[in-house]
Amino acid sequence: MISINQLEHDLRSLGIQEGETLLVQSSLRAVGPIAGGPATLLKALQRVLGEQGTVVAYTATPENSNTSRLSLAPTDGMTDQQKQAYWDSRPPFDPDTTPTSRILGHFSEVLRQTPGARRSHHPQTSFAAIGRLAAELTDGHPLESHLGETSPIGRLYAGRARALLIGVPVWCCTALHLAEYRQPDPPIQTYSCVLPNGSWQSFDAVHLRDEHFEPMTGVLSEMASLRRGRLGAADCFVMDIADGVDVADKFLRDNALFHS
């Protein structure tokens, strides 16, 4: 079993610094068995970052929608009447109690449930944070800015925060989606979700996609500020969010991928 002391040692070896703000994305399976599980990883991060540091995680709920691929999958094969009954039965999003999507792993959910954590109120793309800047990063998260300039991602970019990717490829960093908002005339789609009051709300926002990020692996890996190392058995990256988003922005423009 991997101890908290070993995790702290590995985090410091990765260059994690006291007082910084860190967006954490993790595959705990890649790390190996941790004594105490993801709560121990969070505690190790808090010890290394200290009282002035902040830990952030993506606590999205894409299932709270009738427009995302993930939310539509359960309705395959249903009649129109069955689909309507399914959507009518969807529970409203509650930032205090709605669990993080299972696709994001255990660490995000543990952080969300930790006493003192704050969570943004976006019903599809929320973030949770704990530490000195938790409220500043999560207060106010407009519907139309899933991962945009006025979302927690925009604030992480402005604050020169870094991302710690544990057992996760560098191109999977959620913060890179900010680059999509910065493209000329980004494509727009209609989203729909259940608000805390139980009502369905439709709104227009940038059409977010994932498939154009993996081709960026090469240019992201060449960033001078990118650090590599290991946490337990997991290969890790520590990425300056602003550098990564700027590289992604240029890559999308140079390769005309965003509108293809």
UniProtKB/TrEMBL annotation:
<protein>
    <recommendedName>
        <fullName>Aminoglycoside N(3)-acetyltransferase</fullName>
        <ecNumber>2.3.1.-</ecNumber>
    </recommendedName>
</protein>
<dbReference type="InterPro" id="IPR028345">
    <property type="entry name" value="Antibiotic_NAT-like"/>
</dbReference>
<dbReference type="InterPro" id="IPR003679">
    <property type="entry name" value="Amioglycoside_AcTrfase"/>
</dbReference>
<keyword id="KW-0012">Acyltransferase</keyword>
<dbReference type="GO" id="GO:0046353">
    <property type="term" value="F:aminoglycoside 3-N-acetyltransferase activity"/>
</dbReference>
<keyword id="KW-0808">Transferase</keyword>
<comment type="similarity">
    <text>Belongs to the antibiotic N-acetyltransferase family.</text>
</comment>
<dbReference type="Pfam" id="PF02522">
    <property type="entry name" value="Antibiotic_NAT"/>
</dbReference>
<dbReference type="GO" id="GO:0046677">
    <property type="term" value="P:response to antibiotic"/>
</dbReference>
<keyword id="KW-0046">Antibiotic resistance</keyword>
